[in-house]
Design goal:
about 250 residues, alpha/beta, Collagenase (Catalytic Domain), two-stranded antiparallel sheet, 12 strands, globular, binds zinc ion, metalloprotease, EC 3.4.24.-, hydrolase
Length: about 250
């Protein structure tokens, strides 16, 4: 299916290992680029054509529809979650919807919708893939406000900030500290397919990897050149102003 070419699955395994989500975030999983799973079509695209611009994909086919000026994303939440866990998901959706033109609505009969469920880690597709699309927030490890927003933003169509092709003036990738074989998850994306929606590189983005993501030795895998950037890198507490601007620009609202 041609329209599936750019539909990318993200496996966003962002586990808060202690109470400070800014300092500690570990992404894990065996998926493409750390938390990305490709559909068969996308694997072909990636393997034979080159890397697809996932971070801020330019493919408008994966956008959610705009109805009466509001982007409308239907969802269902699996019954396995407790009421407090459901509230965490609601709060994540509310922070996004209150600051953008994106509305999340309980699914009635819509064909395309997100299903929040407790799967293996924290992960999401990028953009609307058509039909039911799973978004995993594992009950143990993923129930963090910013992790839920991070996965939802993937489902809206945005990838990972640290793969910005201009990131090297802001952060240094310590390849020697990355778990063997996972270096690809730290590669920048092709500028031809990159779109950061009119915003600059944003270390404080909720879509940025943390400094210790996929470390093999407890040392930093991503290091900011400024201490202020270092402090906010990997935060999973709030939408940065850039996060808000990117969503609004992506959906022209
Ligand atoms: Zn992610």
């Amino acid at each position: 299916m041609k329209f599936l070419l750019f539909q990318v699955t993200l496996f966003c395994s962002l586990v808060a290992l202690n109470a400070n989500p800014i300092e500690v975030e570990q992404e894990y999983g065996d998926k493409f680029q750390g938390d990305i799973v490709l559909t068969p079509e996308q694997e072909v695209e990636t393997t034979h054509v080159g890397r697809v611009g996932r971070t801020g994909t330019i493919n408008t086919n994966v956008r959610w529809p705009k109805i009466n000026g509001r982007v409308t994303v239907p969802y269902v939440i699996d019954s396995v979650y407790s009421s407090s866990e459901k509230n965490l998901i609601y709060n994540a959706m509310n922070e996004i919807s209150s600051k953008t033109c994106v509305s999340f609505v309980p699914r009635s009969s819509q064909n395309d919708y997100i299903r929040f469920f407790s799967g293996d880690g924290c992960w999401s597709y990028i953009g609307r893939i058509g039909g039911k699309q799973d978004l995993s927030l594992k009950r143990s490890g993923c129930m963090v406000h910013g992790i839920a927003m991070h996965e939802i933003i993937h489902a809206l169509g945005y990838g990972h900030m640290h793969q910005h092709y201009q990131r090297d003036s802001k952060v240094r990738i310590n390849y020697g500290n990355i778990q063997s074989g996972l270096e690809v998850w730290f590669q920048t994306l092709d500028p031809a397919s990159w779109n950061n929606y009119g915003t600059s590189y944003d270390v404080s983005s909720v879509m940025h990897y943390g400094p210790y993501s996929f470390s093999r030795n407890g040392q930093m895998t991503i290091q900011a050149y400024s201490s202020a950037d270092q402090r906010v890198m990997g935060q999973r507490s709030y939408l940065s102003s850039g996060d808000v601007a990117r969503i609004k620009n992506m959906y022209a609202c």
